[in-house]
Amino acid sequence: MAEGWPAAVLKAPRRLSASNAAALDVEVAGIVRAPSSPPLNILHVLRAPLGGLFRHVVDLVQGQAARGHRVGLIVDSTTGGARAEAALAELAPHLLLGVQRVAISRELGPSDVHALRRVSGWIGQAAPDVLHGHGAKGAALARLTLSAPRAIRVYTPHGGSLVYRPGTLAGGFYRTLEWLLKWRTDLFLFESSYIASLFRAEIGPAPGIVRVVHNGVGEAEFVPVVPRPDATDIICLGELRPVKAFDVLIEALAILKQSGRPVSATIAGEGPDEAKLKAQAERLGIADLVRLVGFRPAREAFAMGRMMVIPSRAESLPYVILEATAAGVPIISTRVGGIPEIFGPQSDHLIPPDDIGALIGAIGAALDNPAGLRRVAQLVKERVQTEFSLPAMVDGGLAAYGEARALRQLAQFA
User: Where is 72: in which H helix or E strand?
Assistant: First the structure.
């Protein structure tokens, strides 16, 4: 494809040939069913068993196992607590290659040497055909290991190191590491066209196969959620950290109250900013309007508000929006990351990040005309149901695995 990636091309992957295998286009692989093939040994490597990334891996594990593949999981042992233990126990019947928990720190450090040694030993024993790394740390471990030399190495960023601000020391370091590791990658399996484009802009052209396979949701998630009798005006859901911009929402609510229009909100989630957000609400005099309720399962949280607000400064392709739109929840969101890919023709309703005035205006308009926001929600729901299905996500990934393995086999005869 010419310099610069457009939005994903909706077409089935082409047949590989020796002449075109070195420069394949970016395509959405999720619209074709994976070809029949012998069962694969597939290992997924990630750090924290939390959030949308973990939910994505759980869906992949279940879908791949249901299609007859042998699947295993390597995940951090220091995060997740009881919820992670319960989720992994429920997932265990699908994991014929087992689950291995290893201490994997969030930031780079000396402990990573020990983690790589532990991970490499288990990978060697499992002898995977596919080694799929998720997020910055999981993908780094999957690509740095020298074990399983015959396995294809797959990378899905989920934002990962690509969301570090350019120009910072951390951003420069992680981008350098990404550039080095891309040469150890057979398949770049991006979850959104946005992240695919960001990778090319920040890291450069990918030397392996590049495919975009959108996250997907299952039919059960399209059952509508009805707000509880004690629902607040707004529900927010996500990890309590700066990138989610809950501080912007709290400031907007304070201004709305000062203008004579108090608006209540529930924030469901955990994270390092919890005390800071509570203090901000106290300082601005709206502690009575903002309740922080800790972690809640998504559908339980959706019922705690009459509309959802996602004020994020950065995102990849957030599951929380896919889940909320599937459940029919009206949404006000910022225009960041892959969110416009979800909203499609309704993207004009998205607002800029860090724009308190735009957020105040969107909340006021939604309260004045809730039927209008519900109409947008219904249109987005219909789009998600047709364009972001769980079977398409699983089959698209398997089809991309097949391409990468075929290219590896071709290279052996070059």
Answer: strand 70-76
List the domain range (segments joined by +) for residue 95. Answer: 27-216+389-409
pTM of the model: 0.84
Q: How long, in residues, is the chain?
A: 414
Q: Where does the pLDDT of residue 343 fall: very low under 50, low under 70, confident under 90, or very high at 90 and above?
A: very high
Asked if residue 172 lies in contact with residue 151, where contact means CB atoms within 8 angstroms, the answer is no
Spell out a b/e string for 154-187, using b for 16 or more CB atoms within 10 Å of the CB, else e. Answer: bbbbbbbbbbbeeeeeebeebbebbeebbebbbb
Q: Give the span between the Cα atoms of 366 and 117, in whole angstroms.
A: 53
- Dihedral pair phi/psi, residue 261, rounded to 5°: -130, 80
Neighbours of 300 (CB within 10 A): 14
- Domain shared by 65 and 119, yes or no: yes
pLDDT tens-place string over residues 280-323:
999 999 999 999 999 999 999 999 999 999 999 999 899 999 99
Residues 200 and 279 placed together within one structural domain of the fold = no
Query: Which contiguous run of DSSP H or E holds residue 231?
Result: none
230-233 long-range Cβ contacts below 8 angstroms, 24+ apart = 231/266, 231/303, 231/304, 231/305, 231/306, 232/264, 232/265, 232/266, 232/291, 232/304, 232/305, 232/306, 233/263, 233/264, 233/265, 233/305, 233/306, 233/307, 233/363, 233/367
User: What's the number of domains the chain is made of?
Assistant: 2
User: Other C-beta atoms within 10 Å of 33: how many?
Assistant: 14
